[in-house]
């Protein structure tokens, strides 16, 4: 359940010169309370009987969905996950603590029924059927395994982890039972086949890659896609009359493509029913907005700057380490916290959030602000300073890095990029900021490695093995989600061991060792855990900030 979020439009009101001076204009470190603790949510939970039947929910999204296949490299986006979780089989759903539970509309049971080798047996709900009338069955599992196990490079997949450990998929005791046998143990087996996709849409590379572009060819969820309006930039979903579970309370869910400023104004005008409030500018306008509630919580949501080590100056690990140490992460987190009712904590771990059990800070020394160490490393790497604050040079080339931003980036994203630009200039690294169309940012820049620096988020990685695709070395022409191409045999080995270790504490030690190596490699500049602050229309129930869990849109509705 790996989700990429391209940098959302945020805003701050802090003068750049103050930010560079350790953000002397930002709040004192203890001005705000800590993020909500592990296992808390804020969704205005209500039983179905307390909700009225019908109504429309309108929500903003960052960009138009063009690839509805979440497992495709172009589809591994948070908005695609949301759509697929409404329309395709979600075998497991996570509670507020991130613990997965079988969804009874799809599964009677699912459990490990063998350990040598590991065998998982799924008993499917006989009522569960695809929109073409076919019952869910073992062939769907088999097609998804073959598409995602990495053996056929024609399938342009976002993540093979877990699927590449499966030895076979077969029918069990009857047509509604599936046996999945693993070649190597896999601890997070519950994250596989969620969503489950139909064999009819996955059984050839052409169907996998192209069959989901701009459409949902086959579904099996409480909602179906009613309309795609590319002029109005909206997606409309309605309850699927073929759904065998409890009918959703809402009549319609509409997603509108809006940038952050437009989404904020649309909420204040009553045109959308929820909007991000996790910026100083947005929070100031939404704190006392009419007919609204603020819902605050903490999720698996990190902000980082990826470093592209595939070529250029950043191909040298010592240069990447210097860039890490030249960036004052605390100042950036203080900027993000300005004006908010919660702290924005620095992240010292790539696999666990600060309020998750087992979190360990492995960031030192490369996550520590040390511009002198950065200058020494650059000197040693042969990048010499001409003096007078000018850009360093080596073999006649200047040390210039391209920081690629989406045009959908908000004020905070732009200000953070400018702050990083200024910080790196202090050690002789020139940063050129390039803004590119939002629709091209992921497919034409991130996925093609067409950048030196890029800022974005990963969300929802409550299964630590979900992060495997981010830190493993690219292979067979596929980057997975390691867009900067930075990796090592040691990290691959540690992660492969961790994902196959069934003992939770032993696995945690392996993830910690891998995390320390990832910091040492200079894979990225891990920044902070993003707070969840959402302005929601008053009376909206079962929607908001679900902690480490998932939103069930079939339960979302308006109070009576």
Description:
- A hairpin with a 2-residue loop joins β6 (107-115) and β7 (118-124).
- The protein has 560 residues and is α+β, with helices and mostly antiparallel strands.
- The chain has helices spanning 16-20, 78-87, 138-148, 199-202, 205-210, 260-268, 280-286, 317-326, 329-337, 371-380, 411-425, 438-446, 468-471, 489-499, 504-521, and strands spanning 3-6, 51-52, 56-61, 92-94, 100-102, 107-115, 118-124, 166-171, 177-182, 223-229, 234-239, 252-257, 274-276, 292-297, 301-307, 393-394, 397-398, 400-406, 430-436, 453-459, 524-529, 532-537, 540-541, 557-559.
- The chain has three domains: 3-37 and 300-532, Roll (Dipeptide-binding Protein, domain 3), CATH 3.10.105.10; 52-63 and 217-299 and 533-559, D-Maltodextrin-Binding Protein, domain 2, CATH 3.40.190; 78-210, Dipeptide-binding Protein, domain 1 (Alpha-Beta Complex).
- It starts with a strand and ends with a strand.
- The radius of gyration is 23 Å and the shape is globular.
- 25% of the residues lie in helices and 22% in strands.
């Amino acid at each position: 359940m790996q989700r990429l979020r391209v940098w959302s439009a945020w805003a701050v009101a802090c003068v750049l010169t103050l930010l560079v001076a350790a953000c002397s204009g930002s709040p004192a470190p203890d001005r705000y309370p800590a993020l909500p603790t592990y296992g808390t949510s804020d969704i205005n939970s209500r039983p179905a009987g307390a909700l009225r039947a019908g109504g429309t929910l309108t929500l903003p999204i960052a960009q138009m969905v063009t690839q509805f296949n979440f497992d495709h490299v172009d589809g591994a986006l948070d908005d695609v996950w949301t759509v697929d979780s409404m329309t395709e089989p979600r075998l497991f759903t996570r509670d507020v603590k991130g613990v997965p539970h079988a969804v009874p509309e799809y599964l009677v049971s699912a459990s490990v029924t063998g350990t040598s080798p590991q065998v998982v047996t799924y008993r499917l709900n006989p009522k569960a059927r695809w929109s073409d009338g076919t019952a869910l069955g073992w062939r769907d599992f088999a097609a998804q395994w073959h598409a995602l196990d990495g053996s056929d490079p024609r399938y342009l997949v976002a993540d093979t982890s877990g699927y590449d450990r499966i030895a076979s998929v077969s029918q069990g005791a009857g047509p509604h039972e599936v046996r999945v046998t693993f070649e190597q143990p896999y601890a997070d087996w519950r994250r596989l086949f969620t969503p489950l996709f139909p064999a009819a849409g996955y059984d050839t590379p052409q169907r996998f890659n192209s069959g989901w572009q701009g459409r949902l060819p086959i579904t099996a969820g409480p909602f179906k896609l009613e309309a795609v309006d590319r002029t109005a930039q909206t997606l409309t979903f309605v309850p699927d009359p073929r759904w065998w579970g409890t009918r959703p309370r809402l009549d319609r869910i509409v997603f509108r493509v809006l940038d952050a400023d437009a989404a904020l104004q649309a909420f204040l005008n009553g045109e959308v029913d929820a909007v991000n409030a996790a910026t100083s500018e947005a929070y100031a306008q939404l704190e006392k907005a009419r007919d609204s509630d603020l819902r605050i919580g903490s999720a698996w949501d990190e902000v980082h700057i990826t470093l592209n080590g595939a070529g250029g100056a950043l191909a040298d690990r010592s240069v990447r380490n210097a860039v890490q140490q030249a960036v004052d992460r605390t100042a950036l987190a203080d900027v993000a916290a300005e004006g908010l009712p919660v702290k924005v904590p620095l992240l010292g771990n790539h696999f666990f959030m600060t309020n998750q059990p087992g979190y360990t800070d492995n960031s030192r020394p490369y996550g520590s602000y040390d511009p002198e160490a950065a200058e020494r490393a650059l000197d040693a790497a042969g990048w010499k300073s001409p003096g007078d604050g000018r850009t360093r040079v080596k073999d006649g080339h200047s040390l210039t890095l391209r920081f690629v931003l989406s045009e959908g980036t908000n004020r905070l994203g732009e200000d953070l990029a400018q702050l990083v630009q200024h910080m790196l200039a202090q050690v002789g690294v020139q940063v050129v900021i390039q803004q590119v169309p939002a629709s091209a940012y992921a497919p034409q820049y991130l996925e093609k490695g067409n950048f030196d620096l890029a800022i974005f988020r990963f969300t929802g990685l409550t299964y630590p093995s979900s992060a495997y695709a981010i830190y493993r070395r690219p292979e067979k022409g596929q980057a997975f989600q390691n867009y900067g191409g930075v990796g090592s045999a040691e990290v691959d080995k540690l992660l492969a061991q961790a994902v196959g270790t069934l003992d939770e504490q032993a696995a945690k030690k392996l993830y910690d060792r891998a995390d320390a190596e990832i910091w040492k490699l200079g894979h990225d500049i891990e920044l902070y855990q993003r707070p969840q602050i959402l302005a929601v229309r008053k009376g909206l129930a079962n929607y908001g900030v679900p902690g480490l869990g998932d939103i069930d849109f079939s339960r979302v509705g308006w109070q009576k």
